[in-house]
Each structure stands twice: as C-alpha cells, then as structure tokens.
Design the sequence.
C-alpha cells in the first residue's frame, strides 16, 4: 500500500542570531489514504511548522531538508506550477483562527466562489455549489450565511465555512491546525464531529494538529507525539492512552486534570516544554524525565518500532515491563 | 495615616551609577558615538564665543568668497564673513531652537495624550477635537503670526512652533496610550489598587517612552527645518545672528557661483545632528531593565 | 463591626449589567445571585457570552454594575468610580490573576519589582524589606529568580501574577482562565500550586472563572454554571459534573473530550 503522505527526516531551520536554529529537528510520519492521524505536541514542539511544510507555506527564511512525498510525488522539489496544482486539488488546510483568513469586506459567498472560479464554476452554479457545501457542514440556512459578512457570524460558523471551503476542491488530504482551539467547548464538539464525518464519508486523509491527546483520540486512528522538534511516539490513538510508550506521553496523560475524577495532586512533569533549538544533546526530554539515566544524554535515541508503534526512548521496553509507564484510564483509580 | 505617596526605590543606586561599560551595553557603541557627537556639538554651542576664531558678523567685502586658508579654514561667505566662526556660533540657535520646541511640545503633548487615553470617553473625544483644530494651523504660519504680534525673534517663534507641534506629538502618543491602556497589565495595576497617577507615571509613561523618544527625534529634525525656514523668511533669527538654517539659505547663491562651502557645511551639520539624535533615540528607546 | 467570619466572603444579589453598544442595549448579566462562604473555592463556568468575565470585572470594581449589590466580607462595593483610597481599600479585599500571562505583567518591571510594588502600594512592608519580602513571596510560588517578563516562560509569568495577588493578602482571589493559555504540562504545575496555596491559607476564597470542566473538577468545591447572563445551575462540583440536571450543563458536560469520547454534531441554527 502506498502512503498518501509520507514525511521522512523532516528538518526545518530558521536563522537565529548568527547561525541556523532548528524549529523541527527530525519528524517522520505517514498517512494512508483515508486515515486520520493526530499530531500532538505542546508549544515549541514544531507541530504547526510540520503541517506548513507539507503545503510549503513556511516563511521564506526557512531552510527545509528531508523528504515529503504526496502519493509518491516529492513535495519539496515541486516546481511552482506543480505546487499550485497540488495545493488546489490534492490538499487543503484549516487554521486555528478562521476570522483572520477571511476578508472582512467580502461575503461568505464571495469567499467560497473564489476557489470555484479557478475551476470555471461561476454565477448560479457557484451559488448552488456553495449552498450544498454549507449544508454538508450542517449549516441550516445556507442562504443567510452566504450573504453574511465574516463579522456577522460566530467563530464556530466561520470554522464551518472554512471546512466547507476546504472540501470544495475534493482534496485527498486535509490538514487541520488546532481548528477548535479558539472555539467554545460545545462548539468544538460540533466542529470536530463535522470534520470526523466528512473525512469518513469522503475517504480523506486527515492530519489533525492539536495539543490535546484526548481530542486526537476522539477523531484519529493513530496519534503521533512530538517533543522539541522530534517525533517521540507513534501508536494507535487508543493505545496511546492505554499504554503510552514514551515517558513524555505518559507524563502528559497524568499531568492533565481529568473531568471524571479529582486527584489530590496532579503528577506533573517538572520544567516547561522546550523548542528544538533549546534541546540539549542526547534525548531532548531527558532533563524532565523521571527515568533518565546518564546514557540518555549521550545520544539522540532512534525512532524505532515497538509494540505495534514507534518510540524514541532507549529505555522504553524496560520501563514498559516494569510498569513505570502507567496505564492511565480513569477506571483505574 | 500619612498620605505620603508610596514610592518604591525602583531603579536603585546600582543602575544609576554611571559607568562607560554600562552605558555602552545599553545603547551600543553606535549610540555612544552618536551621543558623543551630540555632546561635542552642545559643548561647541555653549563655548561658541570662545571657540570662534573670528567675529562671525564681521563683514569684509574685499574677502568675499575667499577659499580656505590658514586665516579662514572654511573660507568666507558672500560678504566675507568667516564661515567656520558662523558655523560655531550658529550651532547655538540651530540646536537650542529645535530642542526647546521639541521639549515644549513633548511635555504638553504627552500630558494631553495620557490624560485623554486614561479618561477615555468624552474627555478623549474633546481632546482629539481640540488637537484637530490645532492641526489646522501650519507651524510656519503660526510662527509668522506670533512674530507679527510679539515681534520677530527666537522666543516668540519657538513658542509658536512648539504649540503647532503639540498635536503631532499628542496624536501619535495618544493612539499608543489608548492601546496600552487596554492591555491587561494596566488593568492589573488598577485592580491592584494603584492610584491613576501612579499607573500613568510608573507604568504607562515608561512603556510609552520608546515612542516618545522616537517622536522627539523625528520632531527635532522637522523643527530644525521649520525654524530654518522661518529664519530664512526673516521672522526668526534676526540677521546678522548666525544660524545653520539661515546659512543654508544664504549659501544657496554661492552654490551656483562655485562656492558651495557655506551651504554644504551647514547642511552637513544639520544632517549629522539629526542623524545622531535618531540613532541615540532608537538605542535609548529599546526596552531596558528595571530591577529592584 | 460584625465579625468577619459571620458574613459570607462573597455575596452577590440580583446583579445586572447592561452595556450600551452603538445605541443598542446588551444585557451581559441578567440577574445573578450567589454567596460564597469564606475559604471556599467556587468555579464560575460558562462559554463566551455567558457574562462570566463581566461578573469578574464587576467584582474587581473595574466595571460598574447596572443594578444589584456586591458585598465582599460584608462590605458593599462602593458606588461611583473607584479611585484613590477607595480603590486601594477594595483591592485589599479582592485580587485577580488574568488569562493572558503575556500581557498582564508590565514589560518593564522585573518579577521582584512587580511583587514589591504590590507590597508597597498596600503598605504591607517597610521600604527596606520590600525586596526580601518580594523574593520570599516569589519563592512561595516556586520562582527563585528575578527577571523581566519577556525572559520568563508562560508558567513563570503566571506564578509572578499569583505572587503579586497574594502580596496584597486579599480575602478573595479571582482566577480568570488563569491556566487556559498554558501548556498542558505546565497547567498541572500551576493547579498544584493553587492547591498548595489553599492548604496554606484556608481563609482565602477562590473564584475560578473557566470553561474547562476538567480544571473545575480539580480545583473547585462548588460550581456555578452561567449561560447568557443567567445562572442556569449551581451545586457541588460532584453534583454538577456527575449529575447535571439543566440541559445546558448536560451539553457542556458531554462536550468534554475524555477517553473514549466521540463528538456529536447538531445542525447550526
């Protein structure tokens, strides 16, 4: 089976002071056609930059190396015409704050019709197409919304419009960068459900970027965890919750308060998340890791296969056997 | 309970101690050079009568447009006056005039800006309207008017241009003050129970300082030009008193006659002074630490 | 003067707030009543437009209520603009930690300077002791360095903001989405810190303004659920989270992602 998207050894650097600084050091992941993959990380992990690299919308000062292939075609070496076709037809992206991606003096119809014009769909055809797109994102009164300006609509509605615009080109891959972070909790649930349904119905591959392991588990088949510009764990989403492979993932799971039960004190990770360029030699998580040994600081652990997933921790088997990467389900305590 | 104003010994002696290294760390060597040049210019201005080799106003028609010599290092102007001496003495009005304008306009403009931004609502609206009305008066026109009423001379002109500059200063600073006013750190100060005066003077003003300094440097350049223009028109610095701006105007015919020294030297000094103010202003405007 | 323990720490009666926006009236709070006993931790839960932030601003004296009364420790919120001594006196009753840890500290003031100022404004320490007392307070929130905000991480900034609030020794501490902007691994640290502070100062009343029900479970004794300016349900944390009765509370509870959770969508009206 060929992967829809394959990222291999991706590295992104920006000029910082006199030298180049890593923002992403080494990211490898793959998405099969129709598969949903969650990319989870805290601030500075490089998750958004990874997604931007896929459609090559990084700032011009960025230096990118490694390999990104879409359906076998190398993305990083595409010529501009090819790249445009790739962005128009194959991939779409939705962002955290929809309002900054919409022109405030144009109606929603103008916005949706703009993409259609490139394919020669105009006038009444564009309007009826826009209406059908809005009903697919469960908007009840598409006519009113089409004639509205962005400021007249709520954040949740705008995000639905963005999703409608994203599926307009029938993409095979959808990149969603924290699409619900700016939304209210109840709205978040609705928008997630729409994304989930659309990608299942249409067999669209999904890369869902979030800082929330629970959200990733809710709509993604697999979860990839990033820390300081590196992929540190990859597993089935439920398996990540049941049996995390990396101490960082395990730490994240226990440090978060749970709605279903109160803990006397949360078992927190010490310190703060770091960016790739701040990472020390060796394992970048070692300074915060309760299980770190001197050897962990010697070299960067390889991202290797383990228990049906992948992990970048030299002590993963050992910790797993000893039960130190504790199962975290709320039924437990 | 005594109502003495609470004050924190904020920047302690440590940060007030003047050391060359400390200064250069804060403003960089570029800032040190700019500051040095400005200090030199101001020193020259202060001691001008002692430094000038000749009487700047001594006309000697026989020596008109003399080229540089050991007698006259930069030569003489159309009426045979020593250019170097006129530059040295001219630095007094050239620097003092704009400085007074800028300081006056900044003090009043900033006070209006902060007051309007702090109170908001009707106060703000009224303040903005008054500034708009002031905007309608061009600086030079106001200066000529005041010269007509109070008589030509530096004082009246400086005051008039200073007043005309208030809206320029106030408008820019007000818009930033309104923005800062809405930031949570100002709300946090209010919520902490600080008086309005304290929040404005200890939090709002310091955070506006980079902009105020930048605005001052820009205004300094414009003020120099406006004052020169007024001098050129004959309302400001009265001949035969030397002034750089007046010298640029005076030297203009000389450029065509092949004697550009006077106009070029005076312009160069204006450029250098404005440049140094800009560099220094930028460096001083960069955030500095305020430790306890 | 009545004994301070006799009256509830926070008492809000039939509070209303109407904003005038472009000639239209917008009712942000439409009649809210509640009391919080001394030392209790109350979560005020709601989404955008619920009025929870306006409520916090009124309690802080930053916004005038249109009608209704607010009492903290038996003392009425003074009428009119809070200024000078009245502002300071009210601030001694209630302090607040803001959501945006990147903008709620003066960028030109170091951590220690910030806490020292709070002490100085409220005459909590003589001049010579400001610096050591500030350092001590910062140590209490786990911060053992002095730096400008832009060289502090989000979690460290929020610790400074907490220390600044505690310096005033208020009766009530309002936390307006105080951990929402923090990274997951840092959120837990701040929540633990707040739990420690509760243990150390049992008289301190906490008001958590939040939309995050997981945070609510962790930190609050009781919950007030607000929707469009009204309290729709209130009760103990366990009751509200495990046995919600109001449809809105139920929907809120069902929207929280948890293990095994699946989102459900409705058509948008």
Sequence:
């Amino acid at each position: 089976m060929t992967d829809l998207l394959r990222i291999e050894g991706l590295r992104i650097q920006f000029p910082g002071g006199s030298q180049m600084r890593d923002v992403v050091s080494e990211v490898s992941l793959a998405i099969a056609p129709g598969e949903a993959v969650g990319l989870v990380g805290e601030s500075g992990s490089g998750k958004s930059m990874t997604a931007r690299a896929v459609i090559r919308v990084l700032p011009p000062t960025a230096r990118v190396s490694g390999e990104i292939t879409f359906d076998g075609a190398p993305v990083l070496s595409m010529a501009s015409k090819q790249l445009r076709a790739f962005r128009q037809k194959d991939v779409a992206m939705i962002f955290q704050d929809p309002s900054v991606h919409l022109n405030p003096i144009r109606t929603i119809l103008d916005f949706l019709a703009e993409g259609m014009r490139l394919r020669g769909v105009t006038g009444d055809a564009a309007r009826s197409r826009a209406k059908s797109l809005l009903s697919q994102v469960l908007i009840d009164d598409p006519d009113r919304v089409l004639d509205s300006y962005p400021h007249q609509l709520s954040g949740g509605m705008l995000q639905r419009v963005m999703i409608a615009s994203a599926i307009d080109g029938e993409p095979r891959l959808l990149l969603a960068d924290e699409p619900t972070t700016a939304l209210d909790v109840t709205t978040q649930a609705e928008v997630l459900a729409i994304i989930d349904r659309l990608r299942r119905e249409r067999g669209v591959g999904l890369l869902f970027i979030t800082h929330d392991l629970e959200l990733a588990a809710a709509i993604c088949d697999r979860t990839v965890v990033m820390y300081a510009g590196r992929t540190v764990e990859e597993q089935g989403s439920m398996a990540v919750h049941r049996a995390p492979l990396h101490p960082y993932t395990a730490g994240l799971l226990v440090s978060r308060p749970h709605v279903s039960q109160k803990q006397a004190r949360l078992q927190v990770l010490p310190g703060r998340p770091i960016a790739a360029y701040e990472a020390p030699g060796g394992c970048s998580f070692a300074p915060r890791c309760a299980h770190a040994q001197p050897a962990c600081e010697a070299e960067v652990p390889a991202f290797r296969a383990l228990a049906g997933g992948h992990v970048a921790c030299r002590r993963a088997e050992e910790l797993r056997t000893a039960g130190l990467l504790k199962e975290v389900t709320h039924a437990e305590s | 309970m005594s109502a003495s104003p609470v004050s924190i010994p904020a920047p302690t002696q440590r940060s007030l101690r003047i050391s060359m290294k400390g200064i250069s760390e804060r403003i960089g060597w570029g800032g040190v050079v700019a500051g040095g040049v400005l200090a030199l210019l101001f020193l020259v201005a202060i001691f001008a009568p002692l430094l000038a080799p000749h009487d700047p106003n001594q006309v000697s028609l026989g020596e008109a447009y003399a080229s540089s010599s050991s007698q006259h290092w930069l030569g003489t102007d159309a009426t045979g006056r020593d250019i170097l001496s006129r530059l040295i003495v001219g630095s007094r009005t050239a620097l003092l005039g704009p400085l007074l304008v800028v300081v006056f306009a900044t003090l009043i403009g900033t006070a209006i800006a902060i007051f309007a931004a702090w109170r908001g609502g009707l106060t703000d609206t009224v303040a903005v309207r008054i500034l708009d009305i002031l905007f309608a008066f061009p600086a030079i026109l106001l200066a000529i008017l005041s010269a007509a009423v109070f008589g030509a001379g530096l004082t009246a002109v400086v005051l008039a241009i200073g007043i005309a500059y208030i809206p320029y200063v106030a408008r820019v600073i007000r818009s930033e003050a309104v923005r800062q006013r809405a930031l949570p750190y100002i709300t946090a100060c209010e919520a902490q129970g600080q008086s309005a005066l304290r929040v404005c003077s200890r939090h709002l003003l310091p955070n506006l300082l980079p902009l105020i300094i930048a605005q001052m440097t820009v205004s300094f350049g414009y003020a120099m030009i406006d004052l020169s223009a007024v001098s050129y028109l004959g309302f400001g610095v009265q001949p035969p008193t030397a002034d750089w701006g007046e010298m640029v105007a005076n030297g203009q015919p000389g450029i065509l006659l092949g004697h550009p020294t006077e106009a070029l030297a005076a312009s160069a000094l204006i450029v250098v002074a404005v440049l140094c103010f800009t560099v220094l202003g930028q460096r001083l405007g960069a955030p500095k630490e305020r430790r306890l | 003067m009545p004994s301070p323990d006799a009256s509830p720490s926070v008492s809000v009666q039939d509070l209303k707030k109407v904003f005038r926006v472009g000639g239209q009236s917008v009712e942000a709070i439409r009649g809210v009543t509640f009391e919080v006993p001394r030392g209790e931790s109350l979560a005020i839960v709601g989404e955008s437009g619920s009025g929870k932030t306006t409520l916090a601003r009124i309690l802080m004296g930053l916004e005038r209520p249109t009608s209704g009364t607010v009492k903290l420790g038996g003392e009425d919120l003074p009428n009119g603009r809070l200024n000078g001594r009245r502002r300071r006196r009210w601030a001694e009753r209630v302090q607040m930690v803001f959501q945006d840890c990147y903008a709620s500290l003066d960028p030109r003031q170091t951590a220690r300077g910030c806490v020292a100022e709070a002490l100085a404004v409220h005459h909590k320490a003589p001049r010579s002791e400001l610096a050591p007392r500030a350092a001590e307070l910062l140590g209490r929130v786990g911060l053992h360095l002095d730096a400008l905000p832009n060289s502090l991480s989000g979690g460290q900034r929020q610790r400074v903001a907490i220390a600044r609030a505690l310096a005033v020794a208020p009766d009530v501490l309002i936390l307006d989405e105080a951990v929402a902007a923090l990274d997951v691994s840092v959120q837990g640290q701040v929540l633990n810190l707040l739990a420690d502070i509760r243990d150390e100062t049992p008289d301190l009343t906490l008001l958590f303004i939040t939309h995050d029900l997981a945070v609510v479970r962790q930190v609050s004794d009781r919950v007030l659920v607000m929707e469009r300016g009204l309290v729709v349900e209130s009760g103990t944390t366990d009751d509200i989270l495990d046995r919600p009765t109001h449809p809105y509370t139920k929907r809120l509870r069902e929207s929280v992602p948890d293990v095994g959770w699946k989102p459900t969508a409705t058509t948008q009206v």
